[in-house]
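Lab meeting prep.
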Amino acid sequence: MSGTNVSGLVHWNVLFNDNTQRICKEFGDHGYEVRIVGGAVRDLLRGVAPKDVDMATNATPDQIVEVCKGAEIKHILTGFEHGTVTLMLDGTPYEVTTLRVDKETDGRHAKVEYTTDFEADAARRDLTINAMSVRIDGTLFDYFDGRNHLEERRVLFVGEPAERIKEDYLRILRYFRFYGRISQKDDEFDEKTIEAIKLHKDGLKKISRERIWLEMKQVVVGRFAETILTKMKDLDLFYLINLKHTFRIDTLCKQHSLADLDVIQPVTMLSYAFDHHGDFTKLRRDWKMSMDEDFIGQFLIRHRHRSEIKHFQDLLVDTPKHCRHKFHMAFKELCLSRADKGLLETIEKWTVPEFPLRGDQLIKEVGLPKGPLVSKYFTLGKARWKDHQYSMEKEEVIEFLKGEYEKSKAPTADPES
């Protein structure tokens, strides 16, 4: 379907805005061609506004830099050794990459050679729907029938699935991720692709753990998550990516019907697959999740079965001020995961009361000696204050603690007397 003009499609101006048009013009004036490639083209054809715009050119990295200097375009050599230069226009980054072909691959990394052949560059991409490119005049270049596959909602590798997988074993997970995004039905996996995955699945052991999480993020919040995760488990992929028998597909996917999947963080949904925070912690370390993701996951596992307002008010009161932003971050995720806007609004609008006593005041006002008793009675007083809906004044808490302290000093009766 190469040669079709797609400039009339919705979101065309998102792809070819003033900045990308300028890039194409500057390179064209120097005798080079620039096209927008990959996911942005796929999204354009789906009627979805592209978020990221990647550009490819038949200019070498050195020639890209020459064009930028001549056009006075700020540029950053972000991935120069791999053929990528980032152009900055109006504060927005645009990655422009020289066309490449793979000369050697080991399933994780590739040694590339530059080329001027757009079709050869497209042939090294993973899926047919990601191998299309478009020129500024609207011409679509579709060497592997990607547009038809997109219309048919089929997810297929470019050429032989086994060859594409062996070039980068992460493509096994990318297949499932895009299946959830593109496919019309939940269980129409391409048989040839599944057979190739069975043969080469052990290659996943070579993939860095953080790259696995980047793909799995989109699987756990994506369409057909239950079918896809079950298929992955049936293919014995779980142990290769460090998902243990304690990973519960049923509880994760049960929550899908309630959660706001458009805005929720993937780790929030992932946490529902674990009954114990220790199992989640092991996976968090293995997949190298961020500290915020760890906090959210642990928070949900500990508190997702609670719904009382007072429980979360007490938690917030006990959270140090400098950490309360983390509480709100995780609490929001919990509410999004079960569509509980009422609870979210109640806590977000609530003015957090402050416990009216400090530890040093207990020594002076209650007569406590310095040492561990201060912490014990501070906790006791705060618990009493919380039980009274945070309404006790300082003097009332002090009187309560004095009484408790006096009781503790009273001699106990001798049972034999």
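Slide two material, second protein:
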Amino acid sequence: MNNSLMYRTAVSGCCRLLLGPSPRQQCLHRLSLYRAFHTTPNNHVNPIVWMVVRPLARGAAMLTGRAVRKWWAGLPPNKRDSIAALIYRHRMSVYVCGSGLLFGSILFYENNKQVMPITGKRKFVLLNTQQLKQLADVEFQGYVEEFKGKFVMSESSLYSAVMLIVTRLVDSNQEYRPIRDIPWKLFIVDDPSVNAFVLPGGQIFVFTGLLDYFTNLDQVAVILGHEMAHAVLNHAAVQVSYNYIVDIVGVVLLWLVWALLPTDILSVLGHWVQGQLVKILFHLPYNRALEQEADEVGTLLAAKACFDVRESSAIWSQMALEGEVSGEQHVELLATHPSHNTRASHMTKLLPYMLKLRVSCGCEPLTRPDPNTAVQSKRTQFKHTQWIYADCK
């Protein structure tokens, strides 16, 4: 994300509107920051069809790769030499075909990029709105069935308190079209899990365990802003589309593994290694990048809603400290999310932008102590305790 451009634009937009007689209302209703989606003519892929084709393609790659290896091994040496010589004579044709395939793939990729809201980034998207809605509806019904009998009534004070946070986030960010267009709906699940998520259709699921874990509304707002940002940025469609490309590359690599390695045992081993490398080098880093982007945009939404965005770094610092106390080991390279320390450090760097944006939107000054100071004090105390314990040993 081009952080400086995005936040400078947001701040300047709010500042211009503060010249009017009602700064808060102006900031809420007359901001001109919205960047509309600019879509190119897309060649959409049905995700249901791909779910069926994907395992078939992988199986076909294994079988055909193995068949080619067996066929090549069974050829006499003179026949192999003649085939190699034939390929060499027509190498220019091979280069032209390969270049054409590469150019066509790049053209297809570029032709199916869309400009994302808020960030302005161009990302590859193969799902259209209707296809994403179908997937989201199926996922939603699955969760409704899974949490049946656990939903907190909308008449409860707990539901009302969380709904106020959601309403504040939505009303304060009406300049962004997805915020306006998505039909947000809140569901609170009576479950001790410290969790919350938002489906592409705008269904917000919050677990009571998360509400028990956090100590104030600002912390909950930062988390909900993060989850809502996933829906606003169309991350579900972006992730699925990215997986299409990685799967296609994976199928090609899988074919090469089974065609080039000399035995079935080595091919099975190579198959496993290839799968792990694709996961570590492609899937996990991209997922972590989307999570970081949601952290940034979610905090921006919370800042414009006048929440205390200092919590955006404090909560991750607190979680990192708790992990250290419990001895939890987090290998970021093998994780779908950035480590707590990474997230805390990144959000700390963005805090000046967020606080400036918050001020420019006419929010009341922050009067309570910086939560990051409290977390840092706990960390110092923990380190001191560790030193004493080490000396005693």
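Talking points for slide two:
The chain has 15 helices and five strands.
The radius of gyration is 26 Å.
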